[in-house]
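Q: Structure tokens for this one, please.
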Amino acid sequence: MKKIGFLSFGHWSDSPHSRTRTASDTLLQSIDLAVAAEELGADGAYFRVHHFARQLASPFPLLAAIGAKTERIEIGTGVIDMRYENPMYMAEDAGAADLIAGGRLQLGISRGSPEQVIDGWRYFGYQPGDGETDADMARKHAEVLLTVLRGKGFAQPNPRPMFANPPGLLRVEPHSPGLRERIWWGAGSNATAVWAAEQGMHLMSSTLKNDEGGAPFHVQQAEQIRAFREAWSAAGWQREPRVSVSRSIFAITSDLDRAYFGGDRDSSDQIGYIDADTKAIFGRSYAAEPDELVEQLAGDEAIAEADTLLLTVPNQLGVDYNIHVLDSILTHVAPALGWR
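A: Here is the predicted structure, written as tokens:
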């Protein structure tokens, strides 16, 4: 059994071929897609966060709106770039959204990826300390967030407050119990997966990772997952870790599917550079008739290792088509692979 959800990047463009022409279109359709996915029986609605781009950015208003209109589905991010975040304010926003959703947030955070502008986090008022990298800064922000989410008081109260305080040191409010145990780290390397385990964060692994050894993508990703689980056990955490992988998977069941994704049948892993020094491997897409998909996906070692599968959706094709994409996987593929 696997949890199966969708991951949307929330693109919009003023193109005659796009069903999402504006930011408003993307936000409102994201809510509609999450509601429809819950009705379909999907397990998760996840959203990518990018800044300075015509994509979803500030996630918490969207997550709160989805939380208010759904009852069961997990609601998350994949991922929030912690280089841009004030962890105190983020803890307040996340706590509020999680309480609205009844404790269903699953927040994926990370050091982020190359963005639309150079050092975009500087425009948000952040810069690494002396001798630190932007990745160091992201991990520091994450560590502060994890500490604050525990809900312990740390701030000295005013002796003459406007409103009466509870006794002792104060914490940021609102606090949502349990949210600290539902934070995930988007790891691009084996080392950062191990670090995430040591911090007690679940693992998110996407469709790309650092190329560490030259094996096929799904094999390297499976090795990353096993390293994470070993580190989790060694750290002595008493709760069960979770692992998600994301994939582009399209079951071709109609002429429209064939027109959109028939050209992806021969997809293969790709090697590239995400910055001047980091060689990365990008995982293949899957597009085929259901029987062929089942055979292909059965050989994906990383999916086998994970408990959660996030299906990347082409959100600019509209809510109805994306529900068809999800339904095709849940109906024609997942049962044959024992995921349902």
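A few notes: The chain has a mean pLDDT of 96. Residues 114 and 274 are 7 Å apart (CA to CA).
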